[in-house]
Every structure is written in C-alpha cells, then in structure tokens.
Amino acid sequence: MSLGRDLGMAVAAAGLCGSLFVLRAQEGPRPTFRVKVDMVVLSFTVTDSKGKYVNGLKPGDFRILEDGIVQRISTFAEGNRPPVQVLESGAVRPLIEAPSQAGAADVGSDAFVGTNVFILFDTSNYMYRGFVYASDAIADFVRGLDRADSVAVYTFSRNLSRAASLTRERAEAIVGLRRAVAGDDAALYNALLLTLRDAAKVPGRKVIIVFSNGPDNASMVAPDDVRAVAEDEGIPIYVISTSEASRDPVSSGVFRRISTRTGGKAYFAKTWQKQVEAFEDIREDLGNMYTVTYYPRANPNEGFRKISVEIPSDVAKKYRVRARPGYRPRGGF
After folding, report:
1. Average pLDDT, integer, range 301-328
2. What is the pTM of this model?
C-alpha cells in the first residue's frame, strides 16, 4: 500500500465514529438500533511532593470524573500487574475470572497485562550525527522492558517503515531496529499518525515513544491534528529529542504540547548519556503507571470532555496526578 493511500486511510479513520451500532431483529417489521458506548482507557501516574512515585493505591482510592460526572471504574491495574475487575460493590476480582457480561466481554484476560510500546525512530537526514548512539539507546531500552511488555519498532524519514511488529521477542525487535538506515527528509507527523492508527487497534495499555531530532519538513498533516487523535485515543506520547529547545523552538514547543496533552513527557537530551537516562525514566514511568477503564455515563457534551483523577484522602492533597486532560467522543451515524 502506498504511503499516500495509507496516510489517507489513517486520516479518514481518525474522523470515523467509534461508537458501535448493533442491528437487532425485533418481533415487529422495523429494526431498532442499540448504541454501545466506547470504553475509555485512562493511564496515569501519581507522585508525591518530592516527585517519587506513589504505589499501592487501590481502585477505591481514586475518583474519576468526566465533565464533573463521577465514573464507575470497570477495570484497574497498577504497573505490569494483572488487571482486576472492579465490581459494583467496590470489591475486586481477577479479570480472568470475570463472567462474560457487559464490559467484561470486551476485555481479554490479558488485555492490560504489561504495556504495548510503539517506538518511532527518526532515521531522516537530521539524524546522521547521532544515529548510532540513538540506535544503541533504543536497543538498551528494549532489552530492559518488563517481560510482560510488548514492543514494536517503526522507523521513518519521508516514509514510515514497520521494522518490527508488536512482539515480546526482544531480539526480533532489535533486529528490525538494526536494519534502519539514515537518510531523506523528515515526515514525523505523517509517521506518528500512522503509528497511532496501528496502536489504536491493539487492546490494553499502549504508549508511543518518539525519538526525533526534529524539525518536520515533509508531513501532510498538522501536529495538533495528530495530537488530538492521540488525546482522543488515550495513547500517551513520550518524545526524546536530541535538539536543544532554543535551536528549534517550533519543534520543541510541539513536542512539549503533544506529550503534555496525552499524559506523556518530553525530553531534550543533548548527549547520548542523557538519551539513555531519558529511556530509563520512561521505563520507570511505565512500571509505576496506573490504568483504569470505564464506560462513560450519560453526558450530553459532544465536544471535548474534561477528565480529572482525584484522590480524596487528606494524605493525597500533595500528590500530583499526570494524565491526559480529556478527549472528544467519537460521533455517531
């Protein structure tokens, strides 16, 4: 499939409705339609006043609100631990034992075990100088991922290359990475949109890690359009850039905006040591991340819905929650 057609399909998919309409035969001659609301996947971290991760919190410790409306948590997971189903009573049980009822039938028993990590590696001509160091830093990161994590390696310059499909085989991912060759212009936002489209098809928790020098000089899509797709899909984006922010303020501003609005982080690592440190920080982030799912309660707002994560206890007043600020519900037919 050509890049233009592939990208066109991704753009179209970003605008398609995500609500599922199921046609059911009734006793009468006229059919009726039932609307099934999309499940929301929300990943976030909690840190204390010193920036240390807060672990061991339970589903009952959190209050998830959407436009001020309290949501009922459906599933809950911490780090790479197996997820649990949260019952109406507030009790929890392993998801694998959950009966096939509304909600449970849509979530596989291992859907939220580990993280699906999509690495998007800039192999454009901007990366000539640091290409080898960047490749080594990515390989070390892949080797150090938790055993429960899956990883895919994509590379891009003007075109996107799916160097290694999502796998738990670290050697396979690294082989794909090592085949990358630097050269040509950079179409980062095109590649990021295509990566988002692939990641959105995978159930469970997923993140995208972009390693790019910036700037983008060949994309057909705007960065804020890509950011909106990531925001709506609930996919955190982490960006590691080797450029100093002062040298490329446009790209650095976009990187910060994309990462902040999706619940990720942006790093500006001028040396290969700093690149390694950035990857280590991301790996630690993934291991300390909470992930919840819920089915939104009735809400007339068809525009941007604000999500907030609260920890009501007095002890948590100084805690900081980092999560995406919200999303736009997908339109209906």
Report:
1. 92
2. 0.83
